[in-house]
Design goal:
The complex is a heterodimer of chains A (300) and B (119). In chain A, β10, α7 (230-237) and β11 (241-246) form a beta-alpha-beta unit. With 300 residues, chain A is an alpha/beta fold. Chain A has two domains: 3-33 and 165-292, Rossmann fold (3-Layer(aba) Sandwich); 63-123, Alpha-Beta Plaits. Chain A is elongated and about 70 Å long. Helix content of chain A is 31%, strand content 25%. In chain A, the strands form two sheets. Chain A has a nine-stranded mixed β-sheet with strand order 3-6-7-2-8-1-9-10-11, with helices on both faces. A two-stranded antiparallel sheet of chain A has the order 4-5. In chain A, α4 runs parallel beside α5 (176-182). Chain B is an alpha/beta fold and 119 residues long. Chain B has a single domain (2-109), classed as Dinitrogenase iron-molybdenum cofactor biosynthesis domain (Nucleotidyltransferase, domain 5, 2-Layer Sandwich). In chain B, α1 (51-61) runs parallel beside α2 (74-82). The mean pLDDT of chain B is 90. Classes of the chains: A alpha/beta (300), B alpha/beta (119). Bound molecules: iron/sulfur cluster (SF4) (2 copies). One iron/sulfur cluster (SF4) binds at residues 65-66, 82-83, 85, 87-88, 102-108 of chain A.
């Protein structure tokens, strides 16, 4: 079975450190077809630690930020009162602009009665593309000190290719950057750990995904005898658990060496192929009831 | 001279707030007349971003010459500097004590922000 045509899967988690990137890169490697992996975790992109390939192109991404012509400004403060983000501030003088906080909405230029504000492009980060075997990796990198992740996330997402499956490594959490990353995906894989904190954040992520109206499946990472029963939570919320990844010292070792689990641990290839099959089925809306209720098979 | 204090309360006995952007009130003391007024600063408390800038804007619009605060972030500092408001750093104490220290020249004037962001 191959990756099955064109669909988009977003890999997300309610908090960082759950193994979201691990799932994204191993799933990408297990697709069996050409696939585009979009690293939208722009504040801390680390898919490149696991997939190597020379950077083919790097492109700068910017947003329009205001530029004030002080000779036209009469310090009326309209711009400052308008901006909900406090990115332009006038205190009885020509305004100060904080480009790192500007959302590029263009509103201040519109409300300025003196026409003193024009827009200039201000860099927020870069988008890199590299080829790593069957995986085209596109990485968004937000410049240090920039608060504006969503426009960069959208720029990364523009790099998906028609006719090819696409996997998105989302920013952690459930705020605007994560929403920007999952929007438009066919399904979301929510990666969690079987701990009280993990379950709490999973609950938040489930709510966020439901609000956007995208079907979700759960991947439980580092399961073991001490872990909480994520299955009960999943059942309650009507979301299938698509895979349980056992807690295994070899996985941590592979991670620290920057190796893919599917390459480093015998038998784990089939684990991620199972995830691929279930993901493809769900993204294509072909998941049967029986399949939905099925729990994972452990690797032989 | 009018001096603003980032405070938890509304009078001379109130403690300074360790944060500036999210301080509950701004207390303003007129050193010539001795009057004390205060304004609410909580509008910025729920702001996802820009609480410090908003507080700085508020202080600048009060027409004070100086702000006494425990800490000040870079964006708020930039706004205050732009508006020509001096920023003085104080230890944890009451508004009245900080006022005495300012008068006696025992406070340090900040020439740049003393904390990164999120204050
Ligand atoms: S463009 Fe929008 S967000 Fe940026 S400073 Fe102007 S009003 Fe604020
Ligand atoms: S709205 Fe225009 S004129 Fe008024 S303060 Fe802003 S830049 Fe100056």
């Amino acid at each position: 079975m191959n990756g099955g045509g064109s669909f988009t899967v977003a890999v997300a988690s309610g908090k960082g450190g759950t193994g979201k990137t691990t799932v994204a890169v191993n799933l990408a490697r297990s697709m069996g077809t050409r696939v585009t992996l979009l690293d939208c975790d722009v504040e801390e992109p680390n898919c490149t630690l696991f997939l190597y390939g020379g950077i083919i192109t790097t492109r700068e991404v910017g947003i329009p930020v205001p530029e004030v012509d002080e000779s036209l400004c009469d310090a009326c403060g309209e711009c400052s009162r308008f901006c909900a983000y406090k990115a332009i501030v006038s205190v009885g003088s020509a305004p100060l602009v904080f480009p790192g906080m500007c959302h590029g909405c263009g509103g201040c230029a519109l409300v300025c009665p003196r026409g003193a504000i024009s827009e200039k492009e201000s860099r927020i980060g870069t988008v890199e593309r590299s080829e790593c075997g069957s995986v085209t990796l596109v990485t968004g990198r937000l410049d240090v000190g920039m608060a504006m992740a969503p426009p960069l996330v959208r720029a990364v997402k523009e790099c998906s290719r028609a006719g090819e499956p696409c996997i998105i490594d989302c920013p952690p959490g459930t705020s605007c950057p994560m929403i920007a990353a999952i929007r438009g995906a066919d399904m979301v894989l929510l990666v969690t750990e079987p701990t009280p904190f993990g379950l709490h954040d999973l609950g938040l992520a489930v709510n966020a995904v439901a609000e956007v109206g995208i079907p979700a499946g759960i991947v439980v990472n580092r399961t073991g005898p001490e872990g909480l029963d994520v299955g009960a939570f999943a059942k309650e919320r009507g979301i299938p658990v698509l895979l349980e990844i056992p807690d295994d010292r070899r996985a941590a070792e592979a991670y620290s060496r920057g190796e893919l689990l599917v390459d480093a641990i015998p038998g784990w290839k089939s684990l991620f192929e199972l995830l691929r099959e279930r993901t493809v089925a769900m993204a294509g809306g072909r998941m049967t009831r029986e399949f939905r209720q099925g729990r994972d098979r452990r690797p032989e | 001279m009018r001096i603003a204090f980032a405070s938890k309360g509304d009078n001379r006995e109130s403690m300074l707030d360790e944060r500036f952007g999210r301080a509950a009130r701004i207390v303003v003391v007129d050193t010539d007349s001795g009057t004390v007024e205060s304004i609410d600063n909580t509008a910025g408390i729920s702001a996802a971003q820009g609480a410090g800038i908003q507080a700085a804007e508020r202080v600048a619009n009060l027409g004070v010459e100086a702000l006494v605060t425990m800490h000040c972030g870079p964006k708020a500092f930039a706004v205050l500097k732009h508006a020509g408001v001096e920023v003085w750093s104080a230890p944890s104490c009451t508004v009245g004590e900080a006022l005495d220290m300012h008068r006696e020249g025992r406070l340090a004037r900040l020439s740049e922000a003393d904390v990164d962001t999120h204050w």
